[in-house]
């Protein structure tokens, strides 16, 4: 004899903290640079137009000493101090970093200071430039109090960071004595000082820093690394200072780092020193920031309504209300009838939506409710000289998922509920049956129908029941019927 029993178990909920537009942004300048250039180039204005909290090093404790032409191991101290101050002012636990050129290497080096890689003190040996080659001698610098990575960076978006050095640094360091004459006569005075240790560290060949950085120190798996790369090398005019191969980084780093050519996004070629002024680069920086800061959809089975035979009531709550009216697209995929994704119609507005899922007979196995959608927003991007603004469209991801088990015909189910999920049992099963599961807050919601009460005994921590209606009044614990 077969009877029908429907039993729904709603288990613990899984919350994800919202991140949409919540991480403050710290802008880090490169070699021979400063924070004012990001304001003059209107990158700061563009990010603020998009509703972000934006800080430069100069807004906090000042720029890197000697315009970022010193040791990266020294400058990482100021970076850490700035990150801590941004967190203190905003209450955030992590920051997003937007960095130009060498500023990306300083930021990356900080995230490498973890585990066995961490060194509170380092020695750095190099041959100073700017003197006749036969007069050069090895110099050793000792750096103390290097900060340990504090798991406080969400992502690093770099513009032309020389992950494996720059041929320009090789040229400058090896010809520093000759180039000094040009600098003394006002030629190339805006370029980094070729005799500085900062230029020495960025050599493609011959730099002890690059050797250690590229081959012996791994990146951190919890940080997203993006390098917006120049397309090709051009010897004159300041274009292509960092090759695409250098932008990709070493084989040790390539699995965790993405180098994206500017031309892939239709961005015209731009001088290395003007990357952060480019309208196209500003737009791409915004894309990267929003892509890693999605709106999170929390998907649950409504605890207000019992699970009726073959019907689930689904609730969707967004972590942030989208800037424009949005109806998220909710899908279900699993086994049997759900082997192909099916869309569930939602109703609602703002941050709250609801829908109904019908579970067909003979649907067994794992299933997943998920949202993989995007909402478009309009942002104003300032021109290079801040005299004009163009309106551009940026897409913000909406993402979320919720897994559960559907069992409609197995006569025995024991501890099959996935973590943070639900078990749905609704099918004809032989009598007597044995169904057990460990329940968590909130209590069970469900009912049994079409069964002779005398055939069911439900044993609970509260006692033994012989009535099917008792299913509606269960408390915590393990149950067998």
Describe this structure in words.
With 481 residues, the protein is α/β, with parallel strands linked by helices. It is built from eleven helices and 23 strands. It has helices at residues 36-40, 43-49, 72-90, 102-111, 167-174, 176-184, 197-201, 208-215, 244-248, 251-254, 279-291, and strands spanning 2-10, 25-28, 54-56, 95-100, 122-126, 139-143, 153-159, 224-229, 257-261, 295-301, 311-318, 330-334, 342-344, 346-349, 352-358, 365-382, 389-407, 412-414, 422-430, 434-439, 458-460, 463-465, 477-480. The strands form five sheets. Strands 1, 10, 11, 12, 13, 14, 15, 16, 17 and 19 form a ten-stranded mixed beta sheet that branches. It has a six-stranded parallel beta sheet with strand order 3-2-4-7-8-9, with helices on both faces. A three-stranded mixed beta sheet has the order 18-20-23, with no helix packed on it. Helix 3 (72-90) packs across helix 4 (102-111). The longest helix is centred in the N-terminal third of the chain and has 19 residues, at 72-90. The relative contact order is 0.14. Residues 1-20, 303-309, 409-456 and 465-481 have low confidence and may be disordered.
């Amino acid at each position: 004899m077969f009877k029908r029993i429907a039993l729904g178990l709603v288990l613990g909920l899984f919350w994800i903290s919202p991140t949409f537009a919540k991480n403050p942004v710290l802008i880090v300048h490169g070699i021979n640079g400063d924070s004012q250039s990001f304001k003059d180039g209107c990158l700061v204005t563009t990010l603020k137009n998009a509703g972000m909290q934006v800080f430069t090093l100069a807004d906090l404790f000042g720029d890197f000493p000697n315009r970022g032409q010193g040791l990266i191991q020294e400058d990482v101290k100021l970076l850490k101090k700035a990150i801590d101050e941004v967190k203190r002012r905003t209450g955030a636990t992590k920051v997003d970093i937007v960095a130009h050129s060498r500023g990306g290497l300083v930021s990356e080096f900080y995230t490498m200071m973890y585990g066995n890689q961490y060194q509170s003190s380092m020695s750095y040996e190099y041959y100073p430039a700017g003197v006749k080659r036969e007069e050069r001698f090895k110099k050793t610098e000792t750096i103390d109090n290097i900060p340990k990575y504090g798991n406080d960076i969400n992502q690093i978006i770099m513009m032309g960071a020389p992950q494996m050095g720059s041929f320009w640094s090789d040229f400058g360091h090896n010809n520093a004595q000759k180039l000094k004459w040009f600098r003394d006569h006002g030629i190339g005075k805006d370029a980094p000082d070729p005799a500085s240790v900062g230029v020495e560290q960025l050599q493609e060949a011959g730099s002890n820093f690059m050797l250690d950085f590229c081959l012996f120190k791994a990146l951190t798996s919890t940080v997203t690394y993006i390098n917006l790369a120049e397309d090709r090398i051009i010897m004159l005019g300041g274009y292509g200072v960092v090759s695409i191969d250098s932008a990709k980084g070493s084989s040790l780093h390539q699995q965790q780092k993405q180098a994206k050519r500017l031309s892939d996004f239709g961005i015209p070629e731009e001088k290395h020193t003007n990357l952060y002024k480019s309208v196209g680069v500003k737009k791409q920086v915004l894309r990267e920031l929003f892509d890693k800061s999605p709106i999170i959809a929390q998907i649950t089975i409504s605890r207000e309504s019992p699970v009726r035979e073959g019907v689930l009531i689904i609730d969707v709550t967004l972590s942030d209300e989208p800037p424009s009216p949005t109806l998220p697209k909710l899908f279900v995929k699993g086994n049997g009838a759900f082997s192909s994704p099916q869309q569930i119609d939602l109703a609602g507005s703002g941050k709250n939506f609801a829908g109904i899922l019908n579970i067909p007979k003979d649907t067994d196995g794992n299933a997943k409710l998920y949202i993989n959608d995007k909402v478009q927003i309009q942002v104003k991007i300032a021109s290079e000289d801040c005299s004009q603004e163009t309106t551009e469209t940026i897409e913000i991801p909406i993402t979320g998922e919720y897994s559960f088990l559907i069992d409609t015909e197995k006569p025995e189910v024991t501890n099959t509920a996935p973590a943070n999920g639900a078990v749905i049992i609704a099918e004809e099963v032989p009598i007597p049956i044995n169904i057990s599961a460990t329940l968590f807050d909130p209590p069970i919601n469900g009912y049994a129908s079409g069964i002779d009460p005398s055939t069911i005994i439900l044993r609970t921590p509260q006692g033994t029941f012989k009535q099917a209606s008792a299913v509606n009044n269960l408390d915590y614990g393990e149950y067998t019927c």
